[in-house]
Amino acid sequence: PALLLPSGMHLFSANSICRSVVFCSTFHVILSCVNLQSPAVAQALHLAVLQGKGSEASSALQGQLSYLEQSLCKKTTPFLTAVCGKRNILVTSALPYVNNVPHLGNIIGCVLSADVYARYGRLRGWNVLYVCGTDEYGTATENKAREEGLTPQQICDKYHTVHASIYQWFQVDFDYFGRTTTEKQTQIAQNIFWRLHERGFLLEDTVEQLRCEMCQRFLADRFVEGTCPFCAYPEARGDQCDKCGKLINAVELQEPKCKVCNQTPVVRSSKHLFLDLPKLEAPLEQWLEKSMGSGDWTANAKQITRSWLRDGLKPRCITRDLKWGTPVPHPDFSDKVFYVWFDAPIGYLSITANYTDQWEKWWKNPEQVELYNFMAKDNVPFHSVVFPCSLLGAQDNYSLVNHLVATEYLNYEDTKFSKSRGVGVFGDMAKDTGIPSDVWRFYLLYLRPEGQDSAFSWADMAIKNNSELLNNLGNFINRAGMFVSKFFENCVPAMDLQPEDKRLLALVGWELKQYISLMDKVKIRDSLKCILNISRLGNQYIQVNEPWKKIKGGDTDRQRAGTVTGVSVNIACLLSVMLLPYMPTVCQTIREQLNAPPTVTATMLQGTGNFVCCLPAGHHIGVVSPLFQKLEADQIEDLKKRFGGQQVSTMIYSTWPLIRPFPHQGEKVRALKGQKAEKAAITTEVDKLLDLKKQLALAEGKNPEPTLTKGKKK
């Protein structure tokens, strides 16, 4: 209880409120709103404690309680706002397309990475606002609506709920998760447009576009696929090549295909508006030099941005011939909408505006706000060049990105995620595996693709769970708690530190400082290793000192057992704090088992780190139980089969007439040759093709040997 009144009633019981809320962010709201230093609370305390007027105390708190209620109900009254004199951190993650279900790669590349950093910032006492939402306009939404027989708005409503549900299960703690189909989005986007227009940063031009006669529409960039004119990558999109990273005009693609019907589109002319990037190049370069020099930009973000500047900026089209989108307010272009990569990043602003009417204190306050953008590398140029140019050109003192954090790609086993082929784990499937969300978070963050692409592997997930979580982290915390429970009647024993103990504490303190230093630089994966290093040190410490033996000895041995147990349980308490950004539920479970005081968080993460004894001698702990369960081999094998997709070899006898003459595998071989892939990779694809031919020949009752053995490797 925060305060026990003479009547025996509690003025404010944190415990009761904690039990009534679901999200940690909500508890953060409560703690911030019920500020003991605020005049309203001070008045209530004075009335209740000094004057004994408990009934009048509640009246003094009505303003605070109303403010709290509105925040909890997500009303428009602001909760978090940029505060002068504090470190204000604005965190965004790339807005996911509303028309599909995010897979594990989408989740780790954007929302989960941003969530870890936002949680860490709150632990550090920073003023953090984390916003995200669904990107809902564009052709992709129109096509999805047509497929499902719904209106675009109905599709957006449906999949916005799907996304929100997935992120909630993964415990992504947004301060606000919004969407781009709002009136605020239209107002802010059109305002930026007019400011650019008035300052001469927009151009008019007639452009050639790809139109699909079969679908009867101009094709959005991401609905065209073809061969990259720069590197010959066969699956380049109509706006960018994922292999070489270069910008592409869709009409430049070689052998373009409509991704909806697979027909070859034709070129048609249309009048459009362009953002004059060359005119904004000088202020952009000046800003980039400052931002990259002082901020934490990942190496790939710097490299991709510099490659764009090195190649020279060109005017970028910001309008499209579509119906579903933010309307262009110019009378000469009233039949068009804004292009998604002009419109979507403005969603960060409009989502914040839907969260608080003081959104400009975040987005028009570059002197007091630090902006962190989290995304996968394919989104970098739009956040480091195109969107900043829009804001620079608007000349309205916008907050620009200070720290651009981009991941590489996460693949699935040895291939790509594919919803249509049933390959990979998607967000709505993870909870059906029976594996807790904290374990998913841990593994995704453990292999977060920070410097290069990485791959999700079921076998590796089992290894990491069983070795790092179960045998290392969980084993240490459970042993430390069980020793207190079993040997010292749930009461932390007295500690008489010896040189050996002090050496351990110095090593743990160093790992804590490393953790903070790395997290400050957004090295999320490396910071996680510091946590595991500490628990590894703890296990070694227990193993060497053998408290389960010493507790049976004389007074000296029993004293030693008590010291080892007390030190270990305090290290476990430290680990609960460090784990919070990564595994929030496990963190809370540890703190409940150890009955850790609420002050432990603020104490240990101050400055460069401060490992102190938060569970002193005499402290009573709760009930200790295992934190993790083993992932068995048969369970993992079943999951691997379940999410591995349907293999061609199992389909061959029912579908062989449809796959002649094996265009898919043949295209892969040609693509690999075009990329100058290693001989081994080409041979693998050739062998797959030959195996298909062999199975088809057998299905037709023919002898495959003569055609397969002669010149096989050629």
Describe this structure in words.
It is found in: Cytoplasm. With 714 residues, this protein is α/β, with parallel strands linked by helices. Helices cover 52% and strands 11% of the residues. The protein is built from 29 helices and 18 strands. The strands form 6 sheets. It has a 5-stranded parallel beta sheet with strand order 5-4-3-15-16, sandwiched between helices. Strands 7-6-11-12 form a 4-stranded antiparallel beta sheet. The model is unreliable at 12-39, 73-78, 646-678 and 706-714 (pLDDT under 50).
Largest sheet: 5 strands, parallel
Helix content: 40-55%
Shape: globular
Total count of strands: 18
How much of the sequence lies in strands comes to 5-15%
State the end-to-end CA separation.
79 Å
- Tell me the radius of gyration: 29 Å
Roughly what is the average pLDDT, rounded to an integer?
84
Helix tally equals 29
Spans with pLDDT under 50 lasting ≥5 residues?
12-39, 73-78, 646-678, 706-714
User: Strand order across the biggest sheet?
Assistant: 5-4-3-15-16
Q: Which secondary-structure class do the elements indicate?
A: alpha/beta
GO molecular function: ATP binding; methionine-tRNA ligase activity
Domain WHEP-TRS: 654-710
Catalytic activity: tRNA(Met) + L-methionine + ATP = L-methionyl-tRNA(Met) + AMP + diphosphate
Keywords: Aminoacyl-tRNA synthetase, ATP-binding, Cytoplasm, Ligase, Nucleotide-binding, Protein biosynthesis
In short:
The chain has 714 residues and is α/β, with parallel strands linked by helices.
Strand-helix topology:
Blueprint: E1 3-4, E2 10-12, H1 14-20, H2 24-33, H3 39-50, H4 54-60, H5 62-72, E3 88-93, H6 104-123, E4 127-134, H7 139-148, H8 152-169, E5 176-179, H9 183-198, E6 202-212, E7 217-218, E8 224-227, E9 236-237, E10 254-258, E11 266-275, H10 277-294, H11 299-311, E12 316-317, E13 319-320, E14 337-338, H12 340-343, H13 346-355, H14 360-363, E15 369-376, H15 380-394, E16 403-407, E17 410-412, H16 427-430, H17 437-446, E18 454-456, H18 458-487, H19 499-520, H20 524-545, H21 547-550, H22 555-579, H23 584-594, H24 600-604, H25 633-642, H26 648-659, H27 663-674, H28 679-699, H29 705-709
